Amino acid sequence: MKPEVGESVNILGEEYKIEKALGKGKGGYSFLVRNAKERCYTLKCLHNEVVDYYSFSGNKVDLELDAYVFLTSTSIKTPRLLYWDREREIILKEYIPGETALERKEKGEDLSFLFSTLDEYQEEVERRKVNLDWYPTNFIFHKGHLYYIDYETSPYEEKWNLHNWGLGHWK
Prior knowledge:
Layout: E1 8-11, E2 14-24, E3 28-35, E4 40-46, H1 60-72, E5 81-85, E6 90-94, H2 101-106, H3 115-127, E7 130-132, E8 139-142, E9 145-148, E10 153-155, H4 162-166
Antiparallel strand pairs: 1-2, 2-3, 3-4, 4-6, 5-6, 7-10, 8-9
């Protein structure tokens, strides 16, 4: 399912209008959606497009759910999961407003004030033998907290940890 801006998606009898595209990742497209009560959410529509640098094993919705369960067992700030549909391959989650770390970096902002939080996140997931996707599009600093907005984790490999792969994209 890949809806277009301006379309609506029905979730449990409620209409969510797609306001804008937020981005495309290796697993899906994310959209800012708004319900009739004018509340904003993030709708992720998973895709089955081939990604030459990454392969998925298993159902993408289940992978996202497993990652969410893991993330909620950590101190890592992440948006709340509100709904998922395996058949339609969609996930509805809390919308965290603001610019991604990459958008802020591209504007010339020094993001080094976030490095200690990233280090804390790295230490915690490494102890549990997991990696996050450290690319700065997956993080938003909002109301004094750094949120990891993607539900993606992978088995720990040192070459993909924050210091060997991720942090270079933040500087």
